[in-house]
Amino acid sequence: AVMTRAAQRETLANEQEAALIAEEGLRTARAEQATARRAHEAEVVVLRQAAAAAVEALTAEEGARRAAVAAVAAEAESLKERLTEAEAAHASDEKTAKSRAVKRITVQM
After folding, report:
1. Is 36 domain-assigned?
2. One digit per residue, pLDDT tens: the chain, 109 residues?
3. Which residue ranges does the record annotate as region Disordered (predicted)?
4. Concatenated DSSP letters for the chain?
């Protein structure tokens, strides 16, 4: 089957149109791919920022917890010192009271 010149031109025009359509489709697919890649990159940035913020919050929370533990330990140490002082004062008071009682008994004899 021999094609006429008109048929050849029409076939060529159809092929060129198909090539242009395919090229446009490829450009569209590439643009969509680039858009998806940018969206993914933006999502990665947001997730990294969220992770960094979470680490920062945990670090701050850990610091606050350590400060609270240190404050409680300091308070406990202070209370132990006050208790020791109170016990020493009480023992001293008891000694003084015994000493006075002994003196009174001695004086009465």
Report:
1. yes
2. 677 999 999 999 999 999 999 999 999 999 999 999 999 999 999 999 999 999 999 999 999 999 999 999 999 999 999 999 999 999 888 888 888 888 888 877 7
3. 85-109
4. -PPPHHHHHHHHHHHHHHHHHHHHHHHHHHHHHHHHHHHHHHHHHHHHHHHHHHHHHHHHHHHHHHHHHHHHHHHHHHHHHHHHHHHHHHHHHHHHHHHHHHHHHHHH-
Place of tokens 């680039």: 34
The structural domain count of the chain equals 1
For residue 77, which phi and psi values (nearest 5 degrees)? Answer: -65, -45
- Is residue 106 assigned to a domain? no
- Domain assignment present for residue 89? The answer is no
Read off φ and ψ for residue 4, nearest 5 degrees.
-75, 165
